Description:
The protein is of the alpha/beta class. The chain has helices at 23-30, 49-56, 59-68, 89-101, 108-118, 132-144, 160-164, 168-178, 181-184, 203-210, 217-228, and strands at 10-17, 35-42, 73-76, 105-107, 123-127, 148-153, 189-192, 214-216. The strands form two sheets. Strands 2-1-3-4 form a four-stranded parallel β-sheet. Strands 6-5-7-8 form a four-stranded parallel β-sheet, sandwiched between helices. The longest helix is centred in the middle third of the chain and has 13 residues, at 89-101. The radius of gyration is 17 Å and the shape is globular.
Amino acid sequence: MSDDDSDRPLRLGLIVPSSNTTAEPEFREFAPEGTTVHAARMALESVTVEALDAMSHNAVRGGELLGHADVDAVAYACTTGSLLHGPGFDAELEAEIGEAAGVPAVATARSVCRALEALGAERIAVVTPYTADLDAKEREFLEAAGFEVVAIEGRRIEANTEIGMLEPEDAHEQVLEVVDADLAASIDAVFLSCTNYRSLEAVGDLEAELGVPVVTSNGATLWDLCRRLDIAVEAPGALFPEPSRHV
């Protein structure tokens, strides 16, 4: 931000799949007061390995275009799109998007790892809306990042608009179907995956019922993005009491 812009609101940039209808509303609902949210879109209709791979080629262009809006930081807000090629791909995305936009950048997959690390989580259960092949990719990525995935379960949905129609109540129900009291007692956190899965509103009730932290894709990405700017976030969940701490 230049000296001439020092009094303007902070601008958060999002790069999202074209069919994502959840990331922008959740970011705008929970972003710190006095910030604005601005999005660039990448073509994606079906959440498949092939479609996500093709979409990722447009990520850097999205960062460049958000740079035209003079944003202060950029998030690549797609979980599977940022873990598709395994550990290291997320870091490459952050570096390339940050260079294109000229500001700090985060990618959801890396943000999720940072959030789980900040919570001290090692053993986790994962709940997704994805197909089985994407669940396998996610398990592989998280285990390579050092987490023990004791359970992972998806809804087997391929159409991203269908994922976007899910409600927080659906997320709440799915988590409780996967994580019973015995499993909750043996894990450190639950991860609710997908930036198009409206789930951040369900976190407070789930944490109260299960007694473990619950991390969502959008929650982790927003936390990480604002952490880079040293601004506090008020949102549901154990992740947010000290949002500006660095890990």
